[in-house]
Structure to design on (222 residues):
């Protein structure tokens, strides 16, 4: 298809390619968020309950990743690490980059959730003969996770949109697909609107879930 034909082609003819990119975006987001919530919990436990040196390392990690741009982190992972003999594929760099960045934000949500659990809860568990680890696992963490869940859902929405940044490391997801099609057809405006609608269609249901979780939590408190 030459330039003139591509500029006259109906927009729906580009949908299969854009939907393929959207599917890759969803996959990147889900895997990266799974890494983020798991690593974030580990960071929180190390920070609050680990030895002093692990708490210091976890705190440094959180502050570093929250204080530096995600785009720079991705550049370092994909373009910088080969300078020291470590080469990552585009998917690996995308998963690790997004996951490690958002783990810092999830760690803060978990820490706030744990802090919101009344101390009497863990004290009661200890008085019943539970160890500290058992009280943490069966009493504190379930309540903290419930409190943190709306924030985690909101972060998933943010990660979903930030996944567009992985287009700079040769990942052909939705944004990169748009860049390629728009540069080829010069239909930046029309294709941009379609891509924006696709992002909205994928993220809006998550917004509704986050809103309902927040309302449910407020109702429970009430």
């Amino acid at each position: 298809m030459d330039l003139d034909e591509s500029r006259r082609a109906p927009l729906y003819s580009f949908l299969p390619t854009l939907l393929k990119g959207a599917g890759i975006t969803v996959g990147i987001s889900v895997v990266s968020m799974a890494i983020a919530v798991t690593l974030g919990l580990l960071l929180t436990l190390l920070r609050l309950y680990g030895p002093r040196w692990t708490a210091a390392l976890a705190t440094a990690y959180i502050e570093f990743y929250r204080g530096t741009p995600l785009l720079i982190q991705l550049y370092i992972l994909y373009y910088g690490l080969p300078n020291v003999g470590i080469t990552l594929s585009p998917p690996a760099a995308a998963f690790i980059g997004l996951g490690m960045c958002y783990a810092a934000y999830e760690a803060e949500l978990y820490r706030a959730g744990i802090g919101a659990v009344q101390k009497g809860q863990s004290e009661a568990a200890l008085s019943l003969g539970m160890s500290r680890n058992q009280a943490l696992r069966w009493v504190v963490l379930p309540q903290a996770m419930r409190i943190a869940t709306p924030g985690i859902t909101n972060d998933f929405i943010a990660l979903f949109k930030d996944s567009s940044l992985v287009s700079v490391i040769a990942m052909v997801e939705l944004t990169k697909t748009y860049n390629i099609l728009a540069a080829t057809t010069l239909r930046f405006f029309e294709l941009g609107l379609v891509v924006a609608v696709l992002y909205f269609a994928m993220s809006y249901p998550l917004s509704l879930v986050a809103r309902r979780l927040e309302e449910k939590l407020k109702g429970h408190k009430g």
Notes: The longest helix spans residues 15-49. The domain at 3-221 is CATH 1.10.3720.10 (MetI-like fold). DSSP finds nine helices and no strands in the chain. The CA atoms of residues 47 and 55 lie 4 Å apart.
